[in-house]
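Subject: Re: docking follow-up (NAP)

Dear J.,

Thanks for your patience while I sorted out the input files. As discussed at Tuesday's group meeting, I've set up the holo structure prediction with NAP included as the bound ligand rather than trying to dock it afterwards. The sequence and the ligand SMILES I used are pasted below, so you can double-check that they match what you have on your end before we go further.
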Amino acid sequence: MTQIAHKTILITGGASGIGRRLALKTAGLGARVVLWDLDGEATARTLDELRQAGPEEPRGYRCNVADRDQVYETAETVRREAGRVDILVNNAGCVTGKRLLDCTDEEIQRSMEVNTLAHFWTVKAFLPAMIEAGAGHIVTIASAAAVVGVAGLADYCASKWAVFGFNESLRVELKQTAPWVKTTVVCPFFIRSRMFEGVRTRFSRLLPILDEEVVADRIVGAICRDRAQVFLPRLVGFVPLLRVMPACWYDGLSNLLGINRAMDTFVGQHAGAAPVEANKETRPQ
Ligand SMILES: NC(=O)c1ccc[n+]([C@@H]2O[C@H](COP(=O)([O-])OP(=O)(O)OC[C@H]3O[C@@H](n4cnc5c(N)ncnc54)[C@H](OP(=O)(O)O)[C@@H]3O)[C@@H](O)[C@H]2O)c1
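The structure tokens for the complex came back this morning:
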């Protein structure tokens, strides 16, 4: 069991969306929350909310997780100012949402840097202290796109498949070397949020667009119970079994479920990641 009360939880991309919900929930359970985000103003707003939500003083830092040096520098600042991180939630993410030939090289690179490579840098920064302390928990926010390829999401799916593999390797490696450090990977289908604004589902009973609040609740429950994997809805977890089918059957089933048309109505687009000044603590304006 991972305790949340009085523990330090660092959430990347914690100023908005699922990260913000997780921050509010864990603050309410008595955690000391540390937020990292690109957006200093949104971070300051979320810090204000966190002060109302729980007893511990939250901290926020502007950090572009795609920038390895910023990650290491900001991690050092966090260690100095907030102490050891007990629970690391790698949540920051971005989506291009274009067909492969419409993606610029920079967009593809950014997807891999934010959704995949950043996890290597943050885990390298915080895992050694967890191993030394004899406790810790690393949470990987992946996606249903980590187990299924989707038309219009080549860079996103590639980045999430990669991070799913990263988590799995890390999990088994830790079981051999430091079994007291737990891992949880979370693979949700589309969530009603700005990241995938406009996407649609064909069978909303089978594959509903998820509610942010419900997803955050499930993630907190999984952390507390040390669950290694969370698929939302559960059906997503059965997708790998379907791979025994010939690819043409599999593609046909995926088309029937409307998976490869989901992005046709997508409008949510993130602006490019501007470089930010590293590791400055964010104060409310
Ligand atoms: N929404 C969905 O349908 C869905 C489904 C499955 C999985 N997920 C995953 O869930 C996670 C959270 O998504 P969400 O829906 O909460 O999205 P969101 O509302 O866009 O939140 C993502 C947060 O990450 C921040 N961020 C982006 N790039 C960053 C960087 N380089 N460094 C630091 N922070 C960065 C964003 O800051 P800015 O606002 O400044 O960009 C934003 O605050 C992502 O990993 C996403 O892939 C989402």
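A couple of observations from a first look. The first strand starts at residue 8 and ends at 12. Residues 105-133 form the longest helix (29 residues).

Let me know if you'd like me to rerun anything.

Best regards,
T.
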